[in-house]
Predict the structure.
Amino acid sequence: MIPVPPRRVLVYAIPIALLLFVLPSVVSPYEVTQLSYGLIFAIAALGFNLLLGYTGLLSFGHSAYFGMGAYGVAFMVKYLKISSMEALIVGGVVAATAVAALFGFLCVRYTRIFFGILTLALSQVLWSLAFKFFWVTGGTDGLRVPTPSLLGVGMAPGQDKMAFLAHRYYYYVLVIFLVGVAVMWVIVHSPFGKALQAIRDNETRAEFVGVQVRRYRYMAFLVSGVYTGLAGALWAPLNGLTTPDILVWTFSGEIVFFTVLGGFQTFAGPIVGAVVFNYLKTFAVGYTVYWQMFLGGVLVVLVLALPAGIVGTASRLIDRLRKAA
Amino acid sequence: MDTFLIHLLNSLLYASVLFLIAGGLSLIYGVMRIVNLAHGNIYAVGAYTTAWAVGRVLGGAPTLVLYALLPVGALAAAALGAVLEPTLLRPLYKRAEEYQLLITFGLLLVLEDLIRFVWGPYPLAASALFEAPGSLTIGESIYPTYNLAVIVVGGLAAAALWAFVYKSKFGVILRATSQNMRMASALGVNVNRVYVQAFTLGCFMAGLGGAIVVPQQGAVLGMGVDALILAFVVVVIGGLGSLEGALLGALMVGVVREVGIALFPEIELAVLYLMAAIVLLIRPAGLFGRT
């Protein structure tokens, strides 16, 4: 039985999806590329939030799955000379899922701070390998990822790469993003999703009701890894280069950051947070060398003043206005 | 035999600095149940402050005066800690752990750039202090005397901390608060004050680590984040919140790293993280942790 979204969800979702489809004909290619980055990070954030928001597990190691998705693509391009994006996505997601299957098996035995530290430590193993085995991974120079062919059609000869990325690749990402959102919506509203929320709210009671806590956590971990790996695979051709920067634990911190920025207690929060964070970071990096200070300051203010995030705070405001009216 | 001794000394050198960083991290966790992701940056502040102070005074001052500047970094780190705890961390003790981790992550980003803002993007050095004591001859190899001094400082710090925590009145209050904050509070302990003291002490240790390491290695951007990750490995092995654990963990990491650099440099870091992961699997709370 697949849950049907209620009308009020579709009232928001359909206009936003339509807006995303017409946007490339309105705004500049640069803006469209930025939006592609935002949507890709949103896919990662959706996956991440299945663990944080729905299962109550804070991972500080999601850079591992994002990085495996991206490096999986880069390896297939470099060593197998594959250019079909569909094949690359499958390869990247399989690589990320394999790592998530291994790491998840170890990590789901723990909760709270130990879960966070263990995920962090394991992700750093991958980072140090990518960093040290430079003859395979390119070290800090990274690996170049040329533009792939989409659905069997490559970039037309002489076509501008920017135009390709801002048009065809954007739509490619957008469709995958929308499918990903719909599938995640089904997951969190399915009995499986409800069981995860039961585990988050009260592990002992969930166990008594008959939920196999560790197995459900493991499955949530795997789904989370698949989403984050998919995001990494889509990110690699857009960025044109994979470096160990996306495997280092501070990138995991950024995933946590934008999920909380949007609001991890809501379904749409991570999506909004990822898109907003990407703009915020691009703006800050272009504006000042002290962009980390700016982002750190935003995070501190966020935690102290607006812990519900953008979407959480907005929906509370709307509720209050409705009651007042 | 000589090479063995040199390797042993290097391991101890490394372990001393790591103990100062990880011990502070662990102390803070033990008392307040907060994992301070910005702890590495506090260590970097200690290193930068000392290098800066030495650079300012350097013009012909006697070396002895320069050594007196070493604690400046530790004091600066402690002062920073004394300001940060009441302003940023205190409002969060009642909130979920996620928020505590996040605010220290925000602090990490801010401090990283604050260091760049105050001291600029280029490395600072205090190598005069490293060169002044000269070197010792061990068999057929030479070894810098300053490194031995660092090992001694690390050992003394560990001993002083042990005496402080287990033999002083403040130590009793500290351990009581750590074991049961509500009970301690009910018995008249001013928990807020203990928290700020513990956090300041933890930051002082990290700052001291930075201050004694800077003559040998210099201060560079990003040193804090690197140190934090190694300190994590130490406290995970030893057990979060345990000082004995931090000492044992620091020694283990020091030895493995020294052996790793000599024998398997490519996977030296990976081996350290795997070591932490294996310990967590066998003993989730670490070798000395309370479950």
About this structure: Strands of chain B lie at 135-138, 141-144. The CA atoms of residues 113 and 221 of chain B lie 9 Å apart. Residues 2-282 of chain B form a domain with the ABC transporter involved in vitamin B12 uptake, BtuC fold (CATH 1.10.3470).
